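Read as amino acids, tokens; as here:

___
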Amino acid sequence: MSIVVYGLRLSPFVHRVKIAARAKGVYDQIDFQMRPEGDAYLEITPLGRVPAMVADGKLIVESLSICWYIDAKFDGPRLAPEEAEDLAHVSMLVRLMELYAGAGLGKLFQLGPAGDPQALSDAFAELNQGLGYLERFIGEGEFAHGDSFTIADAVLAPTMFFVPAICGMVGRTPFEGAPKCAAYLARISEHPAVAPSFAEMTAALQERMAAG
């Protein structure tokens, strides 16, 4: 089987896939490559976004779809719970991150420190609202759900990684009113499936900041 995943070092969406692959125990079976530039990448995926997976010639796009594929395709610890209630909770955490917290965080990043003050306030409020939703549903143990690593962790961890950095960039305090989320980030950052991605993103972020 030939599996290639194309990505960028600083993309939280790419690191969803890397984290899921490590948690599944199949990271070394996947060829993670940097995304080619320009038209060369569009020849691989017409979306032009990362990550993109080519598995035995079949193109799979969107990070969450790739994570589900890895979990279903390979033997190893299940990243998607079998019980309906547990699966619903994992899916809910993923969607709350994507639709609310992640959306607000993305707007803050796009605006940057020179952004319109009202737009920055609105984006920060959106981020805090999303983190508040997660605060209501996230687990208090090591993982986002239950007592084992799930796809929810693969999604939440790399996005939450950026909360302190982006909030600091725009002069805001991270995790206001979301102490459970802050504690979760501190715990999950030490997990062996997550720590290498955090190290890679930290290095890439430092390089970007140094380059201006």
